[in-house]
Specification:
With about 400 residues, this protein is an alpha/beta fold. Helices cover about 35% and strands about 15% of the residues. The strands form three sheets. It has a seven-stranded mixed beta sheet with strand order 1-9-8-5-4-2-3, with helices on both faces. The chain has a four-stranded antiparallel beta sheet with strand order 10-12-14-13.
Length: about 400
């Protein structure tokens, strides 16, 4: 029997980071504002903005911090309603609460994407929108932006899972007013923790820079993308000096060095992650009990995990499938069937008047999640696919009766 691959270990940090890490260790120069200029965090911000094609980037302690600062930078009033999908990670509505705003949830369909009709029906009195591209699945950004632009509602993209994904050839994270990314361990770029926000709006990023912890005149060490005129940014930073609270959500030079070394690896990881996903998805579609929702025509995804739905299984069957896959060495998370899952909206008890979202609940009760990192070979992906197919067959048999 072929052993299943280890899907949890991250790729090694590239050798190119080692010399700079050693320098930081020798000098103890870990604080982003210690160097007179061009500290590793500053260089990361410049390089990331150039890679994404935006004017500004601000590196912070996590994607949650980036989302929180985005909402604060928008200068929303206390208790402002912020609309977000009912399928996301608990940190996203938590960032809304942290920003003294009120999360409003909308339905998500069986394809893991926002139900546009339900989204539109909930836009009344909403003052901002967060679009979570959950697990890298892109909702219809054309319709979302049209609906929000008509009403003058700012859009923040939670692109924690979507670095490298494009929509009509445009980088995800550059479509809304602000895009937020994660460098947590299981993301495409791994620094253990860390995040970054991007925008073309000088006033928004200036507010976020000050609030991130640029005390006194440390904001002078922040720059626009290379080749961009920084006058707008400097004027905005001067305007907001001493006018905003400091939340101290800065990234360290050590984390920035680890991230910078991985930026050249992104195209390969995107290519290999897409290969692995599409190969495994095609394989498990051979089972009558497993189905992978198709991507939208406008998106090109950068997946590092596999999501699929169980078809025709009861709750008892679903738990049995999960157990059978585990016995075969492949851990499957069924979002709605895992105790206290942070991606199941009914566990977000910190939200007042938590709504019922029947379509999202039904999807989560059969939606499965499986790690599938870019470093796997197609042969290793076959082992994963074989285990998933065998687990479904063990529980349900070979064929599905008509109508079930």
């Amino acid at each position: 029997m072929t052993l299943p691959p280890n899907v949890y270990d991250a790729e090694p940090i590239p050798e190119s980071a080692r010399a700079e890490i050693e320098r930081l260790l020798q000098t103890g120069d870990l604080f982003r504002y210690t160097a007179p200029e061009d500290a590793p965090v500053t260089l990361l911000e410049t390089e990331f903005a150039e890679m994404m094609g935006t004017r500004y980037a601000l590196a912070v302690s996590s994607c949650s911090a980036a989302l929180f600062l985005s909402l604060k930078a928008l200068d929303l009033p206390r208790d402002a309603k912020v609309l977000l999908p009912g399928f996301t990670f608990a940190a996203v509505p938590s960032a809304v609460v942290h920003a003294d705003c009120r999360p409003v949830l909308c339905e998500v369909g069986e394809n893991y994407r926002i139900d546009i009709a339900d989204f539109e029906s909930r836009l009344d009195d909403v003052q901002a929108v967060i679009i979570s591209h959950m697990r890298g699945h892109t909702s219809d950004m054309d319709r979302i932006m049209a609906l929000c632009d008509q009403r003058g509602i700012p859009v923040v993209e939670d692109a924690a899972h979507s670095l490298g994904t494009t929509w009509r050839g445009r980088n995800i994270g550059t479509i809304g007013q602000i895009g937020c990314f994660s460098f947590q361990s299981y993301k495409l770029v791994n620094a253990g923790e860390g995040g970054i926000l991007i925008t073309d709006d000088a006033d928004l990023v200036a507010r976020a820079i000050i609030m991130s912890g640029a005390y006194e005149h440390m904001w002078k060490k922040h720059k626009a993308r290379r080749g961009e005129n920084s006058d707008d940014l400097v004027q905005a930073l001067q305007r907001w000096q001493n006018q905003l609270p400091l939340y101290n959500l800065r990234l360290s030079n050590m984390s920035a060095t680890i991230i910078r070394a991985q930026l050249p690896e992104i195209p390969r990881r995107v290519r290999d992650g897409r290969r692995n996903h599409d190969h495994t998805a095609a394989r498990i579609e051979e089972s009558p009990w497993l189905t992978v929702p198709a991507k939208l025509p406008q998106e090109e995804r950068a997946p590092d995990s596999l999501q699929f739905n169980l078809v025709g299984l009861s709750d008892e069957n679903t738990l049995a499938f999960q157990a059978a896959a585990a016995r075969l060495g492949v851990k499957v998370q069924v979002f709605g069937m895992s105790t206290d899952n942070a991606r199941a909206f009914w566990n977000w008890q910190f939200i007042p008047d938590l709504p019922e979202l029947p379509a999202t609940r039904a999807m989560l009760m059969r939606a499965c999640d499986c790690r599938l990192p870019a470093r796997l070979t197609t042969s290793e992906c076959d082992v994963v696919a074989d285990a998933l197919i065998a687990a479904a067959q063990e529980v349900m048999g070979d064929t599905r009766a008509y109508g079930t």
